[in-house]
Amino acid sequence: MTVRTRIAPSPTGDPHVGTAYIALFNLAFARQHGGEFVLRIEDTDQQRSTPESEQMILDSLRWLGLDWDEGPDRGGEYGPYRQSERADIYQRYAQQLIDDGHAFYCFATPAELDEMRQEQQARGERPKYDGRGLKLSADEVKQRLDAGDPYVVRMKIPEEGSFRFEDYLRGEVEIPWQQIDMQVLMKQDGLPTYFLANVVDDHLMGITHVFRGEEWLPSAPKLIKLYEYFGWEAPVLGHMPLLRNPDKSKLSKRKNPTSILYYKRMGYLPEALLNYLARMGWSMPDEREKFCLEEMIASFDMKRVSLGGPIFDPEKLDWLNGQWIREDLSDEQFVERLKAWAFNDDYIRPLIPHIKGRVERFSQVAPLSSFMFSGMTEVGEAQFESLRLPPDEVRRVLQFVSWYLDDLRQWEKEGIFAGLKALAKAMGLKMGDFMAPVFLSIAGTTSTFSVVDAMQLLGPDLSRARVRHALNQLGSVSKKEAKRWEKEYRNLER
After folding, report:
1. How confident is the model at residue 334 (pLDDT cuts 50, 70, 90)?
2. Phi and psi at residue 332, to the nearest 5°
3. Which of 24, 74, 450, 491 is 20 to 30 Å from the Cα of 237, by its Cα?
4. What is the predicted pLDDT for the residue at 46?
5. Which of 43, 37, 42, 41 is nearest to 65 (CA)?
């Protein structure tokens, strides 16, 4: 048997370091066993999936040094490798489950389901689907289908007992069926959920081992039960520990930058970042901290993964990156990497129109544009005290801007500016007062070229990180504030 593993990221945002972490361990396992590694794009969420996000995923994984044997960009005998291009396949298998009595039509509206959950919570029950679709007769189902009523397809699950399975990393796991909801398999738009698509694709693509994050552990009974319903052999399943912030919370962009593009833009070496991800819950037999991908594969044993949540500590990453710079780069290589990072025509040329009209000597270029070649800006309370807005309003502005930038999918200056202008108006603030703390967050000063132009050139990852950094310097938002402000932000009329 040829070992085949996969990664199936969703192209709905920035490429996440967690995706690279899971991809790395699946790749190492496949290579260590002389097997194959597949990249598949999970783009069934058509409202949020974009070609740009897909390309960023491919570019970021390759920048790190990860590669795949089959995928949307290189083909393979099990294609297509985008789930949006396989809709007819999922429809066929969903219908098979219905015909065999393992799935059913559910016509409940979102409002009806919300009411159901509220009633369950009022009774002190754990919210879950109540099986109302199973109570419809065959004639009622036919009438509603003939009438064109919208529906989803849900999976049947046992009502009693527990499900046991052998996790590759955790041993025997038992989960009561009472904790499992009746999974939606097909959405109203005719596309599958991630759940059905992955089961069908993993089977048809011959995937033998699935290593995924531990947040998916509660869904394992449903996944394996689907294989049973189809009469297929399930792949070996293993659940990796989650990456965590230094405070032990789940790694999230609100506490740590999570985009691979951020670390690339900050000037980390891909070898160092990949090395650091390899150290997340795993170590070389000789315990050395610095090693390359080939050395990892040669010594790899998935059973040696520690299940304690590995801490993603930026300071430790800085140290390791410094080791790679000093020990592995000659002076010539250092220069070449530096030029490739930011001192190249592709990055510098777009800056020229913003700098040229503001300088009289070349010696003014570096002070004027230094923030375009740095990481976090060196800002603190003192710089913000000179602004017209009171301190708490500055913090509120930066929090609202942070949420706005997080939600922004198309990163171009016209859209960025239009959104910020609408946000300022909705908050009842003058544009100049509103933009001043944004200027300081992005550039460290209000005396520079257009901050919106700067944000477009810096990119979404570094821009978002700088706003969050400035907000943290002024005092992190408390849970009470965050709850109140988020409600205000979501209710703004823009």
Report:
1. very high
2. -65, -40
3. 74
4. 82
5. 37
Instruction: Provide the 10 A C-beta neighbour count for residue 179.
Output: 12
Tokens of 361: 């000597």
* pLDDT score of 301 more than 80: yes
- Torsion of the alpha carbons at 463, 467, 468 and 473, rounded to the nearest 10: 140
The answer to whether residues 36 and 74 touch, using CB atoms and an 8 Å cutoff, is: no
Q: Tokens representing 208?
A: 């033998």
At 340, the amino acid letter reads: A
Catalytic residues: 253
* pLDDT reported for residue 256: 78
Helix axes 51-64, 270-278, angle to 10 degrees: 80
pTM of this structure: 0.92
pLDDT at position 154? 97
To the nearest 10 degrees (0 to 180), the angle between helices 431-443 and 460-474 is 100
488 has pLDDT over 80: yes
The DSSP call for residue 191 is: P
Per-residue buried b or exposed e for 451-469, using 16+ beta carbons within 10 Å of the residue's own CB: bbbbbbbbbbbbbbbbbbb
* pLDDT value for 332: 97
Six-digit token pair at 38? 């597949």
In angstroms, the CA 481 to CA 490 distance is: 14
Tell me the C-alpha distance between 284 and 301, whole Å: 9
Which ranges of 188-307 does DSSP label H, i.e. alpha helix? 194-204, 220-230, 260-265, 270-278, 293-299
Contacts with 339 (C-beta within 8 Å, 6 or more apart), sequence order: none
